[in-house]
Specification:
Length: about 150
């Protein structure tokens, strides 16, 4: 059977439990059509680049699917009918990713970087850079010593 990655965006005013129920419903449709969902990832509530139907944020969920094309057609039909789903995207792939997706790895990396560098970036709480006018004074030899 063909392999697919399917991502859908749900409205921001839904609870995470409602999104899980929606995912279970879509997984059930795939199972009834003779396919199976090999992996489900809830990416959380993310900000959208532009508003979609007056929503600035959306719950994002990834499904890795091993199913016939008819199963995905039925899932997409159900998503068009459902008002809670803002957008969806299905891509046929050669092989499904085994580990966490790129979105999950990115959030892990961001957490690690914040822990190592602190909130202020590379420099942390070290000495501050001289202001531009101070740097110009020092380069001219007019550095003040108080």
């Amino acid at each position: 059977m063909p392999l697919y990655e399917h991502v859908y965006l749900a409205r921001q005013d839904l609870s995470p439990q409602q999104v899980e129920e929606l995912t279970a419903k879509l997984s059930g449709v795939i199972s009834e059509a003779g396919g199976k969902v090999t992996k489900t990832e809830y990416w959380g509530m993310k900000s959208l680049t532009y508003r979609i139907r007056k929503n600035r944020k959306a719950h994002m969920t990834l499904l890795n699917v091993d199913a016939p094309a008819a199963a995905l057609s039925e899932v997409e039909r159900q998503e068009r009918i459902n008002e809670d789903i803002l957008r969806y995207l299905t891509i046929r792939v050669e092989a499904l990713e085994e580990g966490p997706s790129a979105m999950m790895r990115k959030s892990d990396r961001d957490d690690r970087e914040r822990g190592e560098r602190g909130e202020r970036g590379e420099r942390g709480r070290g000495e501050r850079r001289p202001r531009r006018d101070e740097a110009e004074d020092e380069s001219r030899g007019n550095g003040r010593e108080d």
